[in-house]
Amino acid sequence: MVEQKNGFQSVANIVMILLTLCCLFPFALLVMSSLTDENTLIREGYSLLPAKFSVESYAYLFRNSTKILTAYGITVLVTLVGTVSGLLMTIMMAYPLSRHDLIGRNQLAFFVFFTMLFNGGLVPTYIMYTRYINVKNSLWALIIPSLMVNAFYVIMMRTYFNTNIPDAVVEAARIDGAGEFRILFTIVIPMSLPMVATMALLIGLSYWNDWKNGLYYIQDKTLYSIQVLLNDMLRDVQALRSGVDSAAAAEIAANMPSVGIKMAIAVVGVLPIMVIYPFFQKYFVKGITIGAVKG
User: Fold this and answer.
1) How far apart (Å, rounded) are the C-alpha atoms in residues 277 and 193?
2) How many domains does the structure of the chain reveal?
């Protein structure tokens, strides 16, 4: 029995190692492609061991390092403010929905779920945020539209509260004289740290990777986030290569690492998340596992 168990464990370890390598391979290929000479990349394709290395793609991106640093600063600020605000609003919406004594609980839950299936479309949404909420060309345009509260996250958080916060604990706190806000912030949230960390990571990733809000609502380039700025750079490269009208411009476009820039843009955009993720991994795995098993 012991030998059989050890054999199964060995096979499981091998399978997990292979799966890990399958996950790491695309990222390693992405990084090495961004460090490959443009002509080599076009001639020989993508490779983990390129024949000729080059940092020309990164040199082009960081040619104006002030823009990159400013965009990074805006992205960090928007991600922090958006994550804290979104997490707080998600929790404060999910907690009442998890209480069985809330009047109209099912109706409110239906309205939350309804937004997962239907929306007003791009044009009405754009008009609402620009004409009535007036967030155009401001940092709020990167925080408020479509990202602050996500119905799926609210339902996940509500399910976690329902299945992991005993009603007896809440009732005991009420008997002791605690109000709803005190119960939420001193009892419910500390008991829900795995799910809170999971939600923080998911909301933060949404803000960090968002580029649509910047594309729709921001015309002032000084307010570009890193994703919007990199997307703008990529469009400039493509426009330059497709719209050359002189011999000098043609020579510049021919020497520009257009393929490598795409890879470098992806690396620059994802690298900070890759650095931060290991610190949240244990909470993320625990939160998702509990939500999946008990939800």
Assistant:
1) 16
2) 2
Joined together, the tokens standing for residue 128 give 């609402």
**Contact predicate 214/227, CB 8 Å:** yes
Q: What is the pLDDT of residues 246-285, one digit of tens each?
A: 555 555 555 556 677 778 888 888 887 777 777 766 666 6
pTM of the model: 0.79
Asked if residue 293 is part of any domain, the answer here is: no
* Three-state secondary-structure class, residue 36: strand
Going by C-beta distance under 8 Å and a sequence separation of 6 or more, which residues neighbour residue 180?
A: none
The rounded mean pLDDT for the chain is 82
Domain for residue 295, yes or no?
Answer: no
Contact 231, 215 (CB under 8 A): yes
Distance CA 84, CA 198 (A): 13
Alpha helices per DSSP H over the chain: 2-34, 38-44, 56-61, 65-98, 105-117, 122-127, 151-164, 167-175, 180-183, 189-191, 193-209, 212-217, 226-242, 247-255, 258-294
Same domain, 116 and 249: yes
One domain, residues 146 and 228: yes
The lowest-confidence range among 36-45, 90-99, 180-189, 198-207 is 36-45
Domain that holds residue 204: 57-287
Are 191 and 165 members of one domain? yes
Residues 175 and 49 placed together within one structural domain of the fold? no
Rounded to the nearest 10 degrees, the angle between the axes of helix 258-294 and helix 226-242 is 140
Residue 89 and residue 197 share a domain:
yes
Residue 253 in any domain: the answer is yes
Residue 174 lies in a domain: yes
- Which tens digits make up the pLDDT trace of 88-115? 999 999 999 988 888 888 888 898 888 8
List beta partners, residue 152: none
| Co-location of 217 and 76 in the same domain | yes
CA distance 176 to 159: 26
